[in-house]
Prior knowledge:
Order of helices and strands: HHHHHHHH
Mean pLDDT: 75
Amino acid sequence: xxxxxxxxxxxxxxxxxxxxxxxxxxxxxxxxxxxxxxxxxxxxxxxxxxxxxxxxxxxxxxxxxxxxxxxxxxxxxxxxxxxxxxxxxxxxxxxxxxxxxxxxxxxxxxxxxxxxxxxxxxxxxxxxxxxxxxxxxxxxxxxxxxxxxxxxxxxxxxxxxxxxxxxxxxxxxxxxxxxxxxxxxxxxxxxxxxxxxxxxxxxxx
Length: 205
């Protein structure tokens, strides 16, 4: 990672924006990836006169939004086949309808907070597509979520300049806390699902 950042520091600002764009795009398809590190560093480079904050934010926001829509499309057109082929081990086939109903109720809210949830970005976009949430609203909410997130990252890197690494310490702590909350939520959701399923099976017996 250090080699990548050193290479970025010597690139023309145009290519820095390109790297930020693709890093933000790829993270939505193959998480986790070091896109946040690259984006923060892009803000630091802007503070050093190697680029602008506005273009750095737009690069990250655009890349992230298009990456979200790509995974949304995969979920919409191929999601059911992937689930039926048991490619996603953490979602049992019989639980798909429950997940879809959950997304139909809370899906748009999940898109809004999606960028702030570590490690779940690809999952949210995949199930948003599989649940066939409206494309226009999904695009708008994904863009807003990404815009706010990358504005904060770029601002952090720009404000600290050469001391941009301090932002990463806060991000690491934030990621650990949110991951713990997400894991706890999933455990509760699965436990509740198994309890309800077990109760139904007993009634049938």
